[in-house]
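Lab notebook page, bench 4
Experiment: in silico fold of construct C2
Operator: M.H.
Input chain length: 263 residues
Purpose: comparison with the prior construct
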Amino acid sequence: MARPIVALLTDFGLTDHYVGAMKGVLLGLCPDAVLVDITHDIPPHDVVTGAIELAATWRFFPAGTIFLVVVDPGVGSARRGIAVEAGDYRFIAPDNGVLTCVLNDVKPKRVVELTERRYARPTVSRTFEGRDRFAPAAGWLAKGVDLAALGRPLPTVVRLDVPVPQITGDSLVGEVLRVDRFGNLVTNIDRRMFDQFRGAGALRIEAGGHPVERLVSTYADAPAGAVCALFGSTDHLEIACNGESAGRRLGLGRGAPVRVVRG
């Protein structure tokens, strides 16, 4: 029988004890679990980036993987903790929209609120529910407990208003959703929408008012230091600079407008 996989995504970083404490709780409940770090470098409290990074990752894990997602600026408040089954996967997270992009891609089968106290630690810290409520819930799922046992069913969950690109006349208008560690500006324009829009004519691409001279297949297709556009590993349009940070070169970040213009 395959060992259960729990994949962790947080904004905790690795300087402090937080990630290690959650892993300790998980392994205390399910010593056979395989723990995988997606990232712990989500900017603090940045739920939108957490949602986007999770969406770029979850499909590549084996069926049955449990995702423990803790980007939780509302920790200790009245916001709910939830467990969600979607596709062949299960997710434990605060109900603050961090699952939005996943649930936009695949309809949830079951959603429960984490209300059953026996599946949390005996004392729940108001400042560290990742350790005391969310990690135990993931650990019990890995141990074989059914998702429905964790709490009462919920009809809806919180959704973020993640920007979507729009076609206006001869323009496809999107925006930068994230800047990766290489300085690439990753937009919300996916390849399918781009191909539907482009037609047979020439295209111009602008990022924050800056012209992007070339659309390439890979970074090395552009001359060193040249700004270019391409489709990255998530099949979304990126603005990049070969060997440099496009974000620094253009002075752009999340929310910067990106336009693709016909003709």
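Observations: The CA atoms of residues 82 and 257 lie 34 Å apart. Residues 166-262 form a domain with the Elongation Factor Tu (Ef-tu); domain 3 fold (CATH 2.40.30.90).
Next step: discuss at group meeting.
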